[in-house]
Specification:
Elements (H helix, E strand, L loop, with lengths): L3 H13 L2 H8 L3 H15 L4 E2 L5 E2 L1 H23 L9 E7 L1 H13 L4 E7 L5 H6 L5 E4 L8 E15 L1 H7 L6 H6 L2 E3 L6 H10 L7 E3 L3 H9 L5 E4 H9 L4 E2 L6 E10 L7 H10 L7
Parallel strand pairs: 3-4, 3-5, 7-8
Antiparallel strand pairs: 1-2, 5-11, 6-9, 6-10, 6-11
Helix pairs in contact: 1-2, 1-3, 2-3, 5-12
């Protein structure tokens, strides 16, 4: 059985990033934190924390951190059911969200839920289920309706995407229309190497498949600003881009071509009750997405 004090010290180190900060949070000495973590590692027979700045988990540590956070959520739910039991002041929870959801509709939903400290893992909606499957997050927004084993998948709606570029970029690269040849030669703006939206849109618009010249930016808002600056063409949620098109800062490359990505909130059944408030908040915000 894992010692609760040692587990709390271990989780505090990873949540705060250092043994010193963890000691401050737990109101014990730094040597006490170090000893508790060392005892836990010896008991489990493996290294759990990389002593870096900030401290990071090993693979085993990542799984144990997920376990610690699940226990925290369960304790929070128990405190709510037993009114006499003092609830934790704030419970850490690690969830996977998509960058585009974060940039458009998720944050207001998160802000309505009290008592949670979010550790947001930003990943592509086609890959966030892998984090849930590996036990690295407590819940995730995914593009898959197929539940990860042990989870429920709740539909949120569809996020609709459009392709766009600055007027000057359009004049320079698409003077004769948005063709397969023009798209192959015009630099795109891509979130990361997992992001297939640009290629999916190009195929939908022209029927052509193939690699694209691209810049990698790693930020939904950064991609939008880069497009406004004329660095390339891109694909982003229409709710984010429509105001800039109305202002004339961006041009819709093809009003007839849209991509819709379904989104689902996947929660392990053991976390269903503890994350009920968060689930309700996300589903209330989700009607802002396109429903089909």
């Amino acid at each position: 059985m894992i010692d609760s004090a040692a587990l709390a010290a271990f989780a505090a180190v990873l949540h705060t990033g250092s043994f010193e900060a963890a000691a401050g949070r737990l109101r014990v000495t730094q040597s006490a934190v170090s000893q508790r973590v060392k005892t836990l590692e010896e008991a489990l027979g493996t290294t759990l924390i990389r002593r870096t700045r900030p401290a990071t988990p090993t693979d085993a540590g990542r799984r144990l951190l997920s376990h610690a956070e699940t226990l925290g959520l369960l304790e929070r739910e128990l405190a709510r059911e037993l009114a006499w039991l003092a609830a934790p002041r704030a419970t850490p929870v690690r969830i996977a969200v998509t960058a585009d959801s974060l940039a458009t509709w998720v944050l207001p939903a998160l802000a309505t839920v009290e008592g949670l400290l979010y550790d947001l893992v930003i990943d592509d909606q086609d890959h966030s289920a892998d984090l849930l499957r590996a036990g690295e997050v407590a819940a995730a927004i995914t593009a898959s309706a197929r539940p990860v084993s042990g989870c429920d998948a709740l539909p949120l709606g569809h996020l609709r995407y459009i392709a766009f570029a600055a007027p000057g970029f359009v004049a320079a690269h698409f003077a004769h229309g948005v063709t397969a040849e023009a798209l192959a030669a015009a630099p795109a703006l891509t979130f990361n190497r997992k992001d297939r939206l640009q290629r999916a849109w190009a195929e939908a618009a022209t029927g052509a498949r193939g690699p694209l010249l691209t810049h990698y930016l790693g930020s939904t808002h950064g991609i939008t600003e880069a497009a406004c600056a004329g660095l390339g063409w891109a694909v982003n949620p229409d709710c984010l881009i429509a105001p800039l098109i109305a202002e004339g800062r961006l041009v819709d490359l093809d009003p007839a071509t849209r991509i819709e990505t379904p989104l689902f909130w996947q929660v392990p059944r053991q976390n269903t009750a503890a994350l009920a408030d968060l689930t309700r908040a996300l589903r209330r915000a989700a009607p802002g997405l396109r429903q089909t």
